[in-house]
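The material for today's practical consists of a large collection of protein records. There is nothing in a record beyond a sequence line and a structure line. As an example, a complete record with its sequence and its structure tokens follows:
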Amino acid sequence: MDPTELDTAGPGPGPSMEIEADLMVQAPEEIADRAASVGQERLGRSLRDVFITAVIGGVEVSLGGLAAMCVVGAALTAAPRIGLFGALALGGLVFPVGLLFVFLGRSELFTENFLIPVIAVLTRERSPGSLVRGWVVTWLGNILGCALVAALLSVPHAIGAPIVHGYVAYTDYKLAVPVPGLFVSATLAGLVMTVLTWLMVAVKNAVARVLIIFAAGYPLFAANLSHTIIGAALLFAGFIPAHASALLLARWLLVATSGNLVGGVGFVTVLRVAQVREKRRVR
């Protein structure tokens, strides 16, 4: 049945039918057009606006990381044999609240800009220079927001010892991952986040958006994928108590950022743009 007929077919549709209809009405071309429009507006903002919004995004995703580390630290303390990945599988159930804060609160993460502004540039509505400036300013704002929350968490007795233990275990593991594994992990993280962004543009129903955020947020955290900003939120908080190397942290940020770009732009945005162009060509 055509989704538009739902308004006139009997009593009002239930929530599941509304979500289904919302998902069905958006063709790839329509999603791309909407993304280009939003991207044009996003790249037209002042750099101050971009920076402030990004700082808020860093703070909010750090709160999601804190929620997850409450679970991870408690699991590792109560049942050490569960291991880090067992604890992450549990922490992933609550981590998506940080992404909820970001997406529903209209703040911004660096990886969100791998789709919407890129499409605006590819359609020649904005310049490549504005895209690069947006990437740099958003990345810096996110990092600052993560650092601010990490500074608060580092105050003695601000959070419980089990939570600190979760941050330390995460940091010890993450900074020890070899560069090839880190790059692939970051590529997967960029892919997941850009798929999430595409779906958030496509879907308007609030319930569907929440479900999509949790669907992407869980594997992102539970599989320990290397998302630059999420990782920074956790590594900054675990860096000092773990006595980690500043050089290793800088290397992690550089490789993770590069992998996120490859996964988001190369594996999702480029393919989606190619899909849209092919659909328009054959019509």
